[in-house]
Amino acid sequence: LIFAVDSKGGKVAVRGWRQLTEIPAVQMMRALEAWCHGFLYTHIVTEGLLLAMPRDVVTELRSVTANHLLVAGGFRTQEEFDRLAAMGADASKRTRVMVAYSRAPVPSNS
Q: pLDDT for 22-51, tens place per residue?
C-alpha cells in the first residue's frame, strides 16, 4: 500500500491541490508510516515544470520514514534521478517517461 502525500510549502494539500491544510507533510508521513509500504510524495511547486526538486526536501522526507519513497516534482536529467537514488528515493515512472520522451528525436514529415 502506497500513500500519496501532496505538499506545497511543506503543508499537505488536498482537493486536487486547491486546499492547503495546516498539517506538515512530514507529520502526516510519520502518522501513516506504520500502515503502508511507502509514500508517493508530490512537490507541487515544481511538479510538471521540469525544475529540480529541492534536495533539502528529499533529505527531510527520507529522515522521517524508512519506507519506500517515490517522489514527483519536476525532474529533467538522468543526473537528477541518480541523485535521488543516492538519497534513497525514486522518481515516479511517469516522470522518467516524460524526460525520455522530451529527449527523443522528432520525426520529420519527409
A: 999 999 999 999 999 999 888 888 776 767
- Summarised one tens digit per residue, pLDDT across range 75-100 is 777 788 888 888 888 776 544 444 44
The CA-CA-CA angle for residues 56, 54, 64, to 5°, reads 40
Query: Three-state DSSP class for 55?
Result: helix
Q: What span, in angstroms and rounded, lies between the C-alpha atoms of 60 and 31?
A: 15
Verdict on whether the full-model pTM lies above 0.85:
no
Return the C-alpha cell found at 28: 502526516
